[in-house]
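Record 1 of the preview.
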Amino acid sequence: MSEGYSDHIASLLKTLPEGPGVYQYYDEDHTLLYVGKAKNLKKRVSSYFNKEHDSGRLRIMVRKIADIKMVKVNSELDALLLENNLIKSLKPRYNINLRDDKTYPWIILKNERFPRLFYTRNQIKDGSEYFGPYASVKVMHALLDLISQTYPLRTCSYDLSKENIEKGKFRPCLEYHIGRCKAPCVNKQDEEEYNQNIAEIRLIIKGNISFALRDLKEKMHLASEKYDYELAARLKNKIDLLSSYQSKSTIVHPSITNTDVINIISDEKTAYAHYFKIVDGAIIHAQTIELRKKMEESDSDLLLFAMLEFRNRFHSTSKEILVPFAPEIQLPGCDYVIPKIGDKKQLLDLCYKNAFTYKIEREKQIALTDPEKHVDRIMNQMMKDLRLKEQPRRIEGFDNSNIQGNYAVSAMPVFIDGKPAKKEYRHYNVKTVVGPDDFATMEEVILRRYTRVIEEDLPLPQLIVIDGGKGQLSAAVTSLRKLKLMGKVAVIGIAKRLEEIYFPGDSLPLYLDKRSETLKVIQQIRDEAHRFGITHHRNKRSRETFRTELNDIKGISSKTSDALLLALKSVKNIKEATLEELEKIVGKSKGKLVFEHFHTTQALE
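->
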């Protein structure tokens, strides 16, 4: 058991109760540090004190704990709900931080006679109905515009009590004269008709447009049977407006009637959860929240936290919840569905794409406003994914190029803070290897590079990336062992076919998420090594080919060939150069030899 905690904590640990509950940790100033839930309070709380923790943040928190309070509950679900409420209301330092700075608007149906409908950002407990919140103000205004076109409602704030109307206190305003209100203020619309409209509006706002359409169609047919064609035409206009709105918002099969969809994406320090509320095949609510991790929370915990937040926020009673995996605690009356194919799978994937897009946008903002924080996040993620001891601030990659063993070269790109540092790039002409031996080539280049690093006291990288599988990696390790650098520098290999990551001494590869930033950085290093190596290889091959053709000229040395190529860039340009141009570069006698060689050859051809 860990040492360093007080007698008070020791005595509390001895008397911990069994069963589900919520625990709260306080420091010596009685500041709340952390709130957690447990299936078994005794086992969960004891685990903080009787084992070593990998997380430095967790170790610091445990050292600060001076008091523990516990609340026993009847079930894991009760513990989850209580934990969720305490975290949101008390905001403990070491708990998940819900980043949601926006005050989203709501649609309000005012608690009054002849209710008004408008939007607000403030909720008042006066008995009014609130619908939302709406993450998209544009969507909310589109919905309000649809309702105002379909149903004439009053917009004035008068007290339309029976007494006031009977006393004739009001007169019709402009809204009545332009047809946007039926003037209930002067008894031109009775309360029953107005409330019928309000009932249909409730259905539309909740997304139940199909029910509203069915009711309107029944009324239209009834009006038509009674030869009230004017009313039937007005109802037909409402049906057309609602049908148009429904067709624009339906993106999935209409059989998906009342469903919540939640997906999550997370990295080292942050998670992003996206939510869809589906009614009659239409997404009526969509929102993303950002969750700041504090204690290495699992994706399961984060998904549960987000699920409760969304369902409370949008007052959801959906019995079906589409999720990427089943959370540990089952919400009563709900079924978790993990779709594999079909419309529901497409919805879950779309939910993920929205969370991913939000994540990318947030990272772009951070990269602009706080670039060091952005780099630090990527470095921490790479350190975790690749099991490194330190952040890979400097990464060096290696790739070999040759054609059947000829013109063998190797390229070394350098990445600093996850970005190419092109001034640091190096290329190597292979000296000791004969024939197409990629392993021997890698061994030579790694030995040459890091012998020089040691001799010249250059900075060592935190990570070496070898373009290749186990064979190339083993060759690199051989050289690093000779230089006694194993353990001081991390080295990995990346195989092209399946993007497999190999570690020294481990026969099984690591497969990173194809969308992970770690894999993207490694792929970029590999691609840069390949590009830089191919460019150098092509240049070397061209120079060798040119030199061979120039060296066929009797009396022309390699030095002269290099001077001509440096000045005129290609053999084609040398062939087309005038005698004066050639003499200016290499002198009269050699210039004449080159000029006569090519022009005599051309004449013979």
